[in-house]
Amino acid sequence: MLHQVLVSEVGLRDGLQSVQRVMPLQAKKDWIAAEATAGVREIEVGSFVPETLLPQMADTPALVEFARALPGLAVAVLVPNLKGAERAIAAGAGKLSIPLSVSETHSLKNVRKSHEAMIREIAAIAARIAEEPADQRPHFEVGLSTAFGCTIEGSVSEDRVVRLAEQAIAAGAAEVCLSDTAGYANPRQVKRLVRRVKAAVGAGRLNALHLHNTRGLGLANALSGLEEGIDTLDSSLGGLGGCPYAPGASGNIVTEDLVFMLAAMGVDTGIDIEKLLRVRALIETALPGEPLYGFTPAAGLPLGFKGRDA
Ligand code: ZN
Question: Global pTM?
């Protein structure tokens, strides 16, 4: 297992996109700044979807501008298509992620595009990025959503995950990420699929997992990925957003619990966990009554916790 792992905070995008109340811009900025101060090195600050579709994400350009000014912070955004990518590039985002749903039914329902149309969109974005000066090109990632199962199609063919990963890389993506959108993954499946996709596209083209904790297997799945060389894990502070299908379940894996696990194992994330644990107070104030999750925030750190096991 690696000794350094990048924890990528996605609460402002994945978490907030399922929260109805719009979080005030200033509160989002405070959240980003507080996590950056705690040592978080990558934050997905929003998504470039049409405002009418998701009013919660309307301030994404302002958040990119704000976050870019914070030293050492990689600023990621989600883009649904070329138009979104153009807006993200204009705003100066450092990393663009586009979701490509392995379940074609999910893709048609979600973005009204077939796999073929999505691959064309990915190629168009890669070509657009290549027009930028070499030192200003954002990193371009394709998130293979529903890679471990889909709420509409059920189980998803691993061959299809591998094939789409290959097509995304061939179309010009720098890397792919495996996303457990529905919280269906189990640790053995994670291990198997990470190995297969790495073997197909090259080890350096799959570094990240995007996991949800719908059935409580999020950290087990994360550990399984780490054992296969994954070095980037998406998570959400307080598991914000929850899961519409599973009351009581968090959304993404909880940043605080993930950072605690990594610190306890002696894996370096660059994050000061005590500072991180204080960030959720900002969200509680800005979104009163919004459910937050996580065991470490509830239990506190173990007595004399030093951040490594031996
Ligand atoms: Zn997600």
Answer: 0.96
